[in-house]
Amino acid sequence: MQQTTKSGQTQGPKPLIIICALFFIFGFVTWANGTLIPFFKLSFGLSNLQAFFVTFASYMAYFFLALPSSWILKKVGFKNGIVLGLVILGLGSLIFIPAAQTRTFGLFLTGIFVQGAALALLQTASNPYLTIIGPIESAAKRISIAGICNKFAGMIVPLIMGSLFLKNASEVEKQIKAATGAVHEQLLNDVLGRVNMPYIVLAIVFCLFAVFIKFTNLPEVEVEEDVIDESKGEVVKHTSIFQFPHLFLGALCIFVYVGAEVMAGDIIGIYGRELGISAEISGKLTSITLFSMLIGYIIGIVTIPKYISQQKALRICAILGIIFTVLSFAISSWFAVIFVALLGLANSLMWPAIFPLGISHLGKFTKIGSAIMIMGIAGGALMPLLYAFLNEKLHINFQLAYLLTVLPCYLYILYFAIKGHKAGLHLE
């Protein structure tokens, strides 16, 4: 059984280039959270559990907005949905300005949630677009190409935002703790004021890119109404999305994968601090994780599907994730953070493999199936909170808490790679 699309053939380089630019934006906004977590800890004196509400606000937006995004895309199409998402992303960025002026953490979280809502719409549009503009067997390669843009943005974000937001962080932290009265207030205003210019610039860039896409010829790609079973030479009629168990297993796989990715990317700075690494250096550790992801994407572009299948790549990555997670727990020195960073390599080909496997053979249900898969991104909201709860509330050692949070994720991903992606499809 094979999904067919009206696009049938590759659409040329322009759609891929535009989607790659979008993935760069996704990466820039999403991985900025890795810098915002220590920044808000500095500015508001938050605990780890409180600071992790940054990722909670961002990733929970996917859970609530993915299905409405599917409805929006059905009404306005892929292209107009992307334009709308970029405008909303700009509005979310502008909320940071009054949040900084009023020193309101809740308003910052509101801005992050709005950005997450925009990303839900953009991801729901762009991921299936990448999957169906060419052969499904090479979808992981196209997503890997876009992923390079995403992770390159993630690599430079901690360097740019870290330099802007966490400049002299250790010294500023001491000054804030020692100061009182008007001096204390002024220090907090100065620190939070660092977000103003960067997020104004981001809002302008997002809106200009929306205008560019609006006046660009980006072809719509429509899927066929039904799925053809080539072995029987007949059309298979499906009446419900619940006839595709592999889709829901795939959404759960996205849930645990994104949770594991956030634990390796956004939480590595906190992990580094626990190991005694300074705030300035810890705030930039995310770049190392994303560099290792970038290496993995390059490997995927070269090898998929010419040398290995999407399924085999996913199995290899899951096994690497298990090995690196265990080593990050077994080593007690600062060297343990290297294996957390290497989880980026393990994570690199997971999204490119999981997403096309999850939405394969859906036919007319591709858009809503994509939205269900995108809902799984909420794993990035819950895994950091689980880690912080185990560590701070149950007083479990931070390395053991990390192991208990992340290891089950990779075990499930291995199951999906071996068996789960075939559930209900009767594939060989």
Characterization of this structure:
- With 428 residues, the protein is an all-alpha fold.
- The chain has one domain (13-217, 241-422): Growth Hormone, Chain: A (Up-down Bundle).
- The protein is built from 20 helices and two strands.
- It has helices at 13-31, 33-44, 48-51, 53-94, 96-102, 105-132, 139-165, 169-178, 181-192, 196-214, 245-265, 268-274, 279-282, 286-303, 310-330, 336-347, 350-359, 366-375, 379-393, 398-418; strands at 227-229, 234-236.
- Strands 1-2 form a two-stranded antiparallel ribbon.
Count all strands and give the number: 2
Overall structural domain count: 1
Largest pleated sheet:
2 strands, antiparallel
Q: Helical segment tally?
A: 20
Helix/strand structural class: mainly alpha
**Portion in beta strands:** under 5%
CATH class: Mainly Alpha
Q: What is the architecture at the second tier of CATH?
A: Up-down Bundle
The CA-CA distance between the termini, in Å, is 10 Å
Q: Which consecutive residue ranges, at least 5 long each, have pLDDT under 50? A: 1-10, 228-233
Order of helices and strands: HHHHHHHHHHEEHHHHHHHHHH
Lateral arrangement of strands in the main beta sheet: 1-2
**Gross geometry:** globular
Mean pLDDT: 84
CATH topology: Growth Hormone, Chain: A
Instruction: Bin the helical content.
Output: over 70%
CATH superfamily: MFS general substrate transporter like domains
Write the SSE topology.
Blueprint lengths: L12 H19 L1 H12 L3 H4 L1 H42 L1 H7 L2 H28 L6 H27 L3 H10 L2 H12 L3 H19 L12 E3 L4 E3 L8 H21 L2 H7 L4 H4 L3 H18 L6 H21 L5 H12 L2 H10 L6 H10 L3 H15 L4 H21 L10
Antiparallel strand pairs: 1-2
Helix pairs in contact: 1-6, 1-7, 2-7, 4-6, 4-10, 4-18, 4-19, 5-6, 6-7, 6-18, 7-14, 7-17, 8-9, 11-16, 11-17, 11-18, 11-19, 11-20, 14-16, 15-16, 15-17, 15-20, 19-20
